[in-house]
TrEMBL record:
One of its GO terms (cellular component) is nucleus. It comes from Mollisia scopiformis (Conifer needle endophyte fungus). Residues 58-88 form the Zn(2)-C6 fungal-type domain. This is Zn(2)-C6 fungal-type domain-containing protein. GO terms for biological process: DNA-templated transcription. Keywords: Metal-binding, Nucleus, Transcription, Transcription regulation. PANTHER family: ZN(II)2CYS6 TRANSCRIPTION FACTOR (EUROFUNG), ZN(II)2CYS6 TRANSCRIPTION FACTOR (EUROFUNG)-RELATED. It comes from the Eukaryota.
Length: 600
């Protein structure tokens, strides 16, 4: 994904005028000072020539992308808006007389080149030297944090192979920094600062910047390796969980195209490659499904179309559990594929469950597949209501009830079963959360009466079904163990957020409420979801943004609104984040909910 990451030129950064600092993260911009002329023989030979003059131009990102720069410091508005790294480099004028009419440059004294102004928002240090300043103890701790907290979410590595290659300096710097970016957030900040010998309060941002710079250095038509793609997966995960706005939205698009370019979407179709071992093939499958999950998560939360069509996937599901893969083991592929017809995914559910890995990863992917299908169909119906889409959506509404009948009863019981491990129970709960969310989306009334009429809907009845499914989501957290938060998929956060918004609006409605007071079940459900999202917020910045906006919405619970206003608000809340938002500072729920004042 090097084409979407904006880095810096190392030669410019580490020029003689910019003094390196002894610490890894503590970078203080050096004030501009006069530099004495060089006394080297080369300098003396040229002392009679006009001394080069340096001049600040537009920032490097705007110049490279051919955009109009407003020259603001320390970061221009375009770089600030798009998450680019803003650097003002100096450009050298050609030596010689000035082009002004009738005058020459009098070189009585050498003109000193001005130092480039450093962007105080960016930490600069040499990528070549920075790894050597990190102690082995710090590296080992950051790697351990990754395998404990991130590998269960997006499994990419065999641990022993990774640690051996890291010790032998065979891991690309970009991948190392990307891994440190996501892992450094899972330990107390005080511990990380002690390990790195730094006072930087956001070391993960520093790691991410260097990884971006490494990506910039790799731009061009060079060969793309699997390690390049793994680094891009981790950087996209970091950007998504920081703020799933424009940059994450663009990054996942590039990530998807890169995965297609190296053929990860067709590992198990055509003639097999005899040069690849079973483990290498399974490793590629894990990386492919990591890309697919990010495509699903980011485009769902931004309400945009998905970049991967299920009909174009020729890669089988994994046959190895995450724990076994991390330990270096592999199970020969059983050639099980996700269904191309998601509306009838229940027909494959029993077979996938029977051949699933010990941790239930493939059933989790099946539930994501179902959520994708519902989201895509709703998006299409918003844009163009056709008879074909109406039929497809009606079939999707029937999928979850059919799945309940096709699977064993225990699977939908959120309590931990006697033969389940902690890991498989957590994965099953995440799967159930997504299944309930797909049910919410299937029956959530459409704001357009035309769509509802074509579906033959009773909007109030469908709203009650969605609310009941939301209560089911809250019930799952009665069986959620506290240790699950540390290794759970952050995609769960958007499910919690949407459910909280829906139930909060339900408490504001003027219909269906008893005179004795608000529904206690709804109130209890909101409390559970509030606590759950708060626990996620300790680890993922995305969760804190969602929690703040949900609490802001709940502060309006004194308002009473009718059903048409509920539908109008739910249509606006359908997309938690606008990927084209200029100020990625969270969701301004006051602007959305404030429209209700017009109806009071």
């Amino acid at each position: 994904m090097s084409s979407s990451l904006d880095g810096l030129d190392w030669a410019a950064i580490m020029s003689p005028n910019v003094q390196p600092t002894p610490g890894l993260m503590d970078i203080v911009p050096t004030p501009t000072t006069n530099v004495q002329p060089s006394t080297s023989p080369g300098a003396r030979r040229n002392e009679n020539l006009s001394t080069p003059v340096y001049k600040f131009q537009v920032c490097s990102s705007c110049r490279r992308k051919k955009r109009k720069c407003n020259l603001e410091r320390p970061s221009c508005s375009l770089c600030l808006e798009n998450g680019w790294i803003c650097e003002y480099r100096h450009m050298k004028k050609k030596p010689g007389p000035s082009k002004r009419s009738g005058s020459t440059v009098a070189a009585a004294s050498p003109v000193v080149a001005a130092e480039p102004e450093l962007n105080t928002n960016t930490t600069f240090f040499s990528a070549a030297n920075s790894l050597s300043t990190i102690s082995e103890n710090a590296k080992n701790r950051l790697v351990d944090l990754y395998f404990v907290h991130v590998q269960p979410i997006l499994p990419l590595f065999c641990r022993s192979s990774f640690e051996r290659d890291l010790a032998e300096c065979r891991i690309p710097n970009k991948l190392i920094y990307a891994l440190f970016t996501v892992s450094s957030r899972f330990a107390p900040l005080e511990e990380i600062l002690v390990l790195l010998g730094s006072s930087n309060s956001t070391p993960w941002k520093s790691f991410a910047r260097i990884a971006d710079q490494e990506s910039q250095a790799q731009e061009g038509n060079t060969h793309i390796t699997l390690n390049d793609l793994k680094a891009d997966v981790l950087l996209t995960l970091y950007q998504f969980t920081s703020f799933p706005g424009r940059k994450a939205w663009m990054m996942v698009g590039t990530l998807m195209r890169t995965a297609f370019a190296i053929g990860l979407h067709r590992i198990d179709c055509g003639i097999p490659n005899p040069d690849l071992t079973e483990f290498e093939l399974e490793e590629q499958r894990f990386v492919w499904w990591a890309v697919w999950k990010l495509d699903s998560a980011i485009n769902s939360i931004t309400g945009s179309h998905f970049g991967i069509d299920s009909h174009g996937i020729g890669t089988a599901l994994v046959s190895t559990s995450v724990a076994k893969f991390t330990a270096g083991g592999v199970v020969r592929s059983n050639s099980q594929f996700l269904p191309t017809d998601s509306s009838r995914s229940w027909m494959n559910a029993r077979e996938i469950l029977t051949t699933d890995t010990d941790d239930g990863m493939n059933m989790h992917l099946l539930s994501i597949c179902f959520v994708r299908a519902v989201s895509l169909c709703r998006q299409s119906l918003h844009a163009n209501t056709t008879p074909e889409l109406i039929r497809q959506f009606s079939v999707l509404r029937n999928a979850l009830p059919c799945m309940r009948l096709s699977l064993s009863e225990w699977y939908f019981d959120p309590s931990m079963q006697s033969l389940e491990t902690v890991g498989s129970h957590r994965a099953r709960l995440e799967t159930l959360l997504l299944m309930h969310m797909s049910q919410v989306q299937c029956f959530l009334p459409f704001p357009s009466s035309k769509t509802g009429d074509l579906l033959g809907d009773d909007s109030v009845s469908n709203w009650k079904i969605s609310v009941a499914s939301g209560e089911g989501i809250a019930t799952i957290f009665r069986h959620w163990k506290p240790e699950y938060f540390a290794v759970a998929d952050p995609f769960v956060c958007s499910t919690i957020w949407f459910t909280m918004c829906m139930l909060s609006l339900h408490t504001m409605s003027i219909y269906g409420q008893s005179e004795a007071g608000p529904d206690v079940k709804i109130s209890n459900a909101l409390d559970l979801l509030n606590v759950a999202l708060g626990n996620f917020a300790r680890r993922w910045e995305l969760s804190q943004r969602l929690l703040d906006s949900a609490i802001q919405l709940q502060s309006w619970n004194w308002l009473k609104i009718d059903f048409s206003q509920i539908l109008s608000l739910m249509a606006q809340l359908h997309t938690p984040f606008d990927p084209l938002k200029q100020e990625p500072a969270g969701i301004d729920m006051w602007q959305i909910v404030g429209t209700m004042n017009e109806y009071q």
